[in-house]
Amino acid sequence: MNSPEKNKVYLITGAAGFIGFHLSKSLLEKGERVIGIDNMNDYYEVSLKEARLSILEKYERYSFERCDLADKEKVFSIFEEERPDVVVNLAAQAGVRYSIDNPDAYIQSNIVGFFHILEACRNYPVEHLVFASSSSVYGSNKKIPFSTEDKVDHPVSLYAATKKSNELMAYSYSKLYGIPVTGLRFFTVYGPYGRPDMACYKFAKKMVKGETIQIYNNGDMYRDFTYIDDIVEGIERLLCSPQVEDEQGARYKVYNIGNNNPEKLMDFIAVLEKKLGIEAKKEYLPMQPGDVYRTYADITDLERDFDFKPGTSMEEGIGRFAEWFKEYYNL
Prior knowledge:
Blueprint: E1 9-13, H1 18-29, E2 33-38, H2 46-56, E3 62-66, H3 72-82, E4 86-89, H4 96-101, H5 103-123, E5 128-134, H6 158-177, E6 181-186, E7 189-190, H7 199-208, E8 212-215, E9 222-223, E10 226-227, H8 228-238, E11 252-257, E12 263-264, H9 265-276, E13 281-284, H10 300-306, H11 314-328
Parallel strand pairs: 1-2, 1-4, 2-3, 4-5, 5-6, 6-11, 7-10, 8-13
Antiparallel strand pairs: 9-12
Helix pairs in contact: 1-2, 1-8, 3-5, 5-6, 7-9, 9-11
């Protein structure tokens, strides 16, 4: 098994976010040195980001910089001072539906911000840059499971378009400047300290308040729900294994990280109801703009290159989320 190497400096952007928090915590528990960057924006409640941050700041080998990646000067000053060995770019304006009404936020964070990370890695060379892409890049592809070999030229949201743009930008920087880069297409990540705009958390909050949950496409949807611990282990497996040069001279590859097992949305809701002990009030609605019918990750490359396949069942994962949720909100 590949695992993080000792005595390296890991810089993680979006460190107060869901995946950034869990990855930082896991590395810190292994005794690694982690520098976190986050702009602490209010896309969802800042109190949750602060709660994650307060846990990380208890670790001696953790330091945090409040920084917007659109601020190139600040980004460069952090790289100049810290000289990270490995960079994990998880900072991004997230959310498919939010991108329909707030496009500016996506260009600033996902395009301009990522450009500044690439420039920093060029000017202060790193051993490996790992960045978050998304299963959203597959749009409404009909072929399943989704493979990284598939064409992804028809994004159905600006969010997806920015993530595909990140992949293209990263490839060009790898080819031009020799930066070892790995992109990760995440599939519907959930778990404790998750994102409140994602289905699991959003449904739970409404259910405990006795509010109605909105179910799109009349419940006829499938998602490759992936538990957070599996995502973190997948990232850690490849952190210190940068790509070798391909035939075009780029040290670049993209992987899917998903559960490789799409679940019916209604089954997911049923397990959440059971674990919370609440029957949800439901409102069935048509498919929303930017949404897709099914996501399903082909993880052949991940299994072959890193001997890793996510293994947390929906029952187990939602159970852990529900336990955390009840404790966090004192229910």
